[in-house]
Amino acid sequence: MISITYRITGLMFLAITLTVFLLVFLANHQMTTLFANYLVDLYQHSDGLVTGHTMMGLQEQEFLNSVHNSLIWVGWAIVLVGLAASYALARSITVPLRKLNAGVREIERGNFAHTVEVDSNDEVQQLAAAFNRMAAALETNNRLRRQLLADIAHELKTPLSVIQGNLEGMIDGVVATDREQLLSLFEESIHLNRLINDLRDLSLAEAGQLSLEKAPADINQLVAHAVGMVKRLAEEKKLQVECDLGRLPTLEVDVNRLRQVVFNLLTNAVRYTNEGGKVTVATAVERREEQEWIAVSVRDSGQGIAPEDLPYIFDHFYRADKSRNRRSGGTGIGLAIVKRLVETHGGSVLVDSRPGEGSCFKVLLPAAAPKA
User: Fold this and answer.
1) Is the confidence at residue 264, as pLDDT, over 70?
2) Spatial CA neighbour of 36 closest among 70, 64, 69
3) Among the four residues 22, 160, 210, 256, which has the most C-beta atoms within 10 Å?
């Protein structure tokens, strides 16, 4: 393989050499012709005939030879300087490319933290900056993938360990095989099945392959049903749940998916609101960016979310309160599912939260929802 350095140098050197050769040749030719014409002595005879003879002598010939030699030496000097300049130009292009090539090999080996430093202010530097951004994105995605796998393994291990431990105890006769124990195992199996279904739906939504079974639906009725599903949990914490439902047009949505969205938001609101607090669910039509949206907001009077946690609350398995376990804090994928399901419907999720003042999650759905 011929290095691109030598190819660029060769092409530039060839172009410079040909240019210098032509210039020297033409300069020599012109100098000889014009100087010889300049030295011609013209004589007019009596019959009107004009004749002439050259006055070229030794000194004139030495002058021409000196000029010719000077042009040749200048030509060689220009060729050598051109060769050096061509090589320097080629190196200025190929050295950063070699660094990028080395960086690609590092990425291929799995070293996503590798960066390329290029000291220039041109397209090559822009390419290096794009490469560094790509490497950083790969490093982040790789870290999130490892964390996701670890979180999934942890979440699956917990119910499986409980089921396995209880079954071993039953087999050994240590744990009684009564209704209470069987109900406990049944609850763990339900949780395990729900977690697997949530992970499946989340992966399908992120891949853009989640199918929606849309049908005309009354959003207020859907919200009221979701409120009824968390009513017992709210009563256990002595929470006040209020509904402020506005007049809404009928939307074509996947009722089960959207009910899951509202249920997840309500569950979070109830879970993170202290005893005696209040959760408010409201619906309204809002106009944003010259388009009408159906807004479903869930506001609580809970502990709120710290500003440093807000950018990550929709990430997989992220919990703002790291001390919470699966029982008290959920699996950490509820909000991730909310975001993906709403985006699949062509909408978006907004959050406004301040520590100590509670949180407000708002789901925006286009009044004319696009069909799947």
Assistant:
1) yes
2) 64
3) 210
User: Which domains, ranges and CATH numbers included, belong to the chain?
Assistant: 4-111 (no CATH), 128-206 (1.10.287.130), 215-366 (3.30.565.10)
Q: Tell if the pTM clears 0.70, that is, is over it.
A: no
Q: What is the pLDDT of residues 146-172, one digit of tens each?
A: 777 777 777 777 778 888 888 888 888
Report the C-alpha gap between 79 and 73 in whole angstroms: 10
pLDDT digits (tens, 9 = 90+) for 190-220: 878 877 887 787 777 777 777 788 899 999 9
Residue 42 has pLDDT above 50, yes or no: no
